Amino acid sequence: MKLRNKIRLISFLTAGSIAVAGLFASQYIKTENYKLKIENEYVSALYELNASLNNIATVSEKIGLVGTPSRLSMLASKLYCEAQIAKSALSRLPLDMEYDRIYLFLSQVGNYALSVSAELMENGKITQNQSEGFLLLSKTASIVANKVDDFQSLSNNPSYWEEELSGILPSDSQSINSTLSETNEQLTDYASLIYNGPFSEHLLDKTPVLLMEAQAVSEKTAEQLLKNIFPNIQFNFTQKTNGQFPQYRFENDTFCASVYENGGYISFVRNQRTVNEELIDYQTALSYANVFLEKMNMYDMTATYYYTENNMCVINFAYMAEGVICYTDLVKVGVALDNGEIIMYEASGYLYNHKQRYFEKQKYSLKEALAKLNSSLTAISSSLVLIPTDAINERLCYEFLCRRESGEEVLIYINANNLIEEQILILLKTNGGTFVR
Hints:
The chain is of the alpha+beta class. The chain has helices at 3-63, 69-91, 100-123, 128-154, 160-166, 176-186, 209-212, 219-229, 282-295, 348-353, 366-370, and strands at 236-240, 247-251, 255-260, 266-271, 301-309, 312-321, 324-336, 342-346, 378-388, 394-403, 409-415, 421-430, 433-436. The chain is built from eleven helices and 13 strands. Strands 1, 2, 3, 4, 5, 6, 7, 8, 9, 10, 11, 12 and 13 form a 13-stranded mixed beta sheet that branches. Strand 11 and strand 12 (421-430) form a beta hairpin.
């Protein structure tokens, strides 16, 4: 064979080998991407299941504290929706058997709430047995949620789902099937719960008046506005988002921020720098946050509650108008506890809801609202507040800080113009701050 032909043959074979290798590589990448997609779906389903179970526990506990039928009806609808989400998440997991008791619990818990709600609309009275029944539902949902939560931390290992699907998990390993099987055996008390038909709810988008009325600014103007607030941080423009209200994005290795094109309002800031130690207390952090808000030209803001994580104190502020705390107009400010630097800011609640507010005198007195509280609660203090509802509306309410017989504290919101019980929040006080659920 001539040398030229040999060279051609070797070239063809080499090219063929490269093509075959490329094909195998392409198929391997597709397979790995498919596996990753499946694993992400399982992770998402497990997260949704856990979140819905915790929501069921919280809402059931709140129903046990309800003092009015109308509020119970609203919470009952929430229970039903959370149960549907949990059932959907459960159906997307790689299960090798039917967990009938878990499904029965999820199917009946929301409908039981709706059934009790219908009874209350007729007789207008919440019985002790009904309150205790919902507390039992809450405890049961917490048991299931804790089981799923413990398993969720184990399944964060990247190799877990591959081993689960391949059936090669070590014999002493916990699996999703063993976790749910154990939980399924514990649920035996819900066969007598009553169905009462379907119930659904929806959320409506809110139109941000503040942004609608603002003039558009350029990228350069937005960058300068951000530099005026954070002069010591170097960052670059990265992109402009799409949508009805576009935002300019600015970043560096640890810092990211978003500024609305409309008005140049800063909507979000996060500095991911490490905060290694806690050198200042809450009151000092609060003073730094107040100075920052004044720099942002945000006045008449009052601190509501806070929490600490990773040596950062996150303080929630609400707008105050005519003595009314407007929980609709919220901002969050994160203060680094090593030097007081502002390392987090989130203002979507404020930007979407803020406007000039005027309040007419409320129809019902504080005393009349106080009479609507559940008899097991003791009121500690009260305030006049504006709260958002599940849709686009707002409600002027009396906020009552109450203590339960167990010593726990809760917030109850009674509408100041019709005495409807609008909201219940259970307070969780920790060394890191006060949380609500």
